[in-house]
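Moderator note: this is an archived Q&A kept for reference. The question asked for a predicted structure of one protein chain; the sequence and the answer are reproduced below.
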Amino acid sequence: MSHAPLIPPAAAPEPRPVPELLATAERAATAGDWVAAGHAWVEAAMQASLEGANQASRVAAPELKVLADAGSADAAALLSGILLDYYDESALPMAVEYAKAAADAGHPAGQRTYGHMLATGQGVDKDEERAAELFRAAADAGDAYGLFNFAATRDGDEKLRLLAGAAAHGISVAGCVLGDRLGAVDRDEEALAWYLWAAERGETEAMYAAACWYRDGFGTAPDPVQAVRWYFTMYEHGNGNGIHDAIELAKQGMTDEQIHEAGRLAGDPGWAEAVIGTIRGKRPQDQA
């Protein structure tokens, strides 16, 4: 059976830079707009900003609770996510309370969060059927993460189509999952394209998959330069699991020029020097 190829979107929403998000949050907090401030801090935290996580949990959460208790579904939906992601298990009952309140009010983010709790049995009895209904409702209302979560409840081509839709709305991890799913059914060229799409948006699992596929020639001809490039890039994003792979591949006949090119593409020539030094037995000062 033939399938129409799933092509990564040429353009998708890119995450705003962390400094911009933190500045936006501070302005909103100063103006007393705690929902906007909380969203900006959470978005920064999702990009590994410790300040974003701290401000969301310590500063925004108490203010959001006041608003949620006064009936704000926006505040309840955001507060439930903060309690779930940045607090310990003692906050779970409160997270469930606010997520359910937001979901019952028809708030897409509340539906998605409460659906996640039902799907995983976090603080509530597991109910996958009800979770899927909430994910669908959130997706139908335009919630990108709701669409991504709904995709997890589907199978076959429908799952692939929904994942592609989530990716088009900027959910980069959807590209990584799509790569896995397409690879599992031998649609290797498409899988690699999605891994690269997600890797270019900072997903380290996608970087590792792309590196290994370039190394082994899945979905493309073997390309050690691109493989080492993505192993290096993983490290730049805080994941050092590919460095050993990079060294082993470099030992298998790569020239110094190829390793340097991989470092250049990764944006850190220093790693090329370090790997060359390791495999050639050179000291850094000997490398010209």
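Archived answer notes: The longest helix spans residues 50-69.
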